[in-house]
Amino acid sequence: MSDAQQPRPRRQRSLRESLGSIVLGFELIVVFLGALVLFGLNALPAWAALGGGALVVVLMIAAIGLMRNRAGVVLGWIVQALVVAAGFLQPAFFIVGAIFTAMWTYCMIVASRIDRNTTDRNNRTETR
């Protein structure tokens, strides 16, 4: 194969990026279904329930796309706050928000620690 035909090597994703994307992906499905529940229960006008749900879903998609940067993590925290705040519209969202915020917090803390240890270990082996 010539140099022009060889595929570019894939970028190595961090654990924080991978786990954050997984949590937001599952949460995206729950938020979409939750928006339909708010619409079905007439808790909000249709434009507010579906439009607000769509806005949060778009923010989650943006956060997933930006997870390699700090902006994605910050946007993820904002989304967690919005889902918990939706509990004022439908109390079940307090439970959903608490569960996903706990998973998000755990993933961000533990994955960052593991990524840092892996980077330190790789740096030590390179200097030998």
TrEMBL record:
<feature type="transmembrane region" description="Helical">
    <location>
        <begin position="95"/>
        <end position="114"/>
    </location>
</feature>
<keyword id="KW-1133">Transmembrane helix</keyword>
<keyword id="KW-0472">Membrane</keyword>
<keyword id="KW-0812">Transmembrane</keyword>
<feature type="transmembrane region" description="Helical">
    <location>
        <begin position="21"/>
        <end position="41"/>
    </location>
</feature>
<dbReference type="Pfam" id="PF14017">
    <property type="entry name" value="DUF4233"/>
</dbReference>
<dbReference type="InterPro" id="IPR025327">
    <property type="entry name" value="DUF4233"/>
</dbReference>
<protein>
    <submittedName>
        <fullName>Membrane protein YdbS with pleckstrin-like domain</fullName>
    </submittedName>
</protein>
<feature type="transmembrane region" description="Helical">
    <location>
        <begin position="47"/>
        <end position="66"/>
    </location>
</feature>
<feature type="transmembrane region" description="Helical">
    <location>
        <begin position="73"/>
        <end position="89"/>
    </location>
</feature>
